[in-house]
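Please describe what follows:
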Amino acid sequence: MADQIAVVGGVDTHTDFHQAAVIDTIGRHLATAPFPTTPDGYRRLLEWMRLHGDVLTVGVEGTGAYGSELARFLRANEVTVVDVDRPDRKARRVNGKSDPVDAYAAATAVLSGRAHGRPKTRDGIVEAIRSLRVVRRSAIKSRTQTINQIRTLIVSAPAEVRERLRGLPTYQLIAQLARSRPGADLADPTCAVRTALRRLARRYQHLTEEIAEADAELDPLVAQAAPGLVDLIGVGTETAAQLLITAGDNPDRLKSEASFAHLCGAAPVSASSGRTNRHRLNRGGDRQANHALHTIALVRMRYDPRTRLYVARRTAEGMSKDIFRCLKRFIAREVYKYLTSMNIPQLHLLQAA
């Protein structure tokens, strides 16, 4: 009587197909099968699981990557989804590695309670911010690479080129190179380096325009998603966008401000043993969120009077090594209040589709 059996599903996600598995509530393996990563494949996967019983929960590996669309589909069909980490190396050495093994492991992790994290919904304005920010970050990285290439070429350029460009600030250097006329004899090293510098300068200008366009798109979205967040001292559009992405479209999944601090790698981790009672820095968590907190702390240390007084006091007490850790922990606590109280408008992409 399959309709009277409660089952738990597990999915090992891939680019072209997902391996699904079903176990019962006492952990017995019932079945496993692959399904394509298409809308029809998601529908058949859910129907196949329901053939084995009443689906309580489905554990999905990679809900932020290969399994993101499957997670959205399952939630739209009122199925509880749990984010499952891949098995650790010890478990893989003991149990082996294959797609069915990983799918069963995902289901077992949910049943045992080892996996219990709520995945990001990825169907609201924060997901839109994340997509646009990918373009901005890659443009910034390319622009930095471009100016480094320009300065490297100038160092090895002939003296008549190098002396005219040496010591110029970046904006003057780019403007001068972009409007230069290098000539047509590319067999001449001087002409070739001038041509290369002009092309790189124009690439730099194009990337600058692309970054400005991304900023113009991101500013109103971030202000709409968290108007109070960008008003905090030291918090700009870039850092606010990263903290929003870390929290996701459903920040209520964060149980407390301490859990958010751990997620950002800004909370101390116990490192006690025997008679030793101490804590160490958390080197895990979302490192980009940790970098955003670090940037906010740097800005406050320079421009916020309260923070400058705090830094002076802790330095006088001989606790300078703990200043950044304490500041980032305080900022995480302050930011958490805005992330969990904001009203993020949902796009309901699945319902619209």
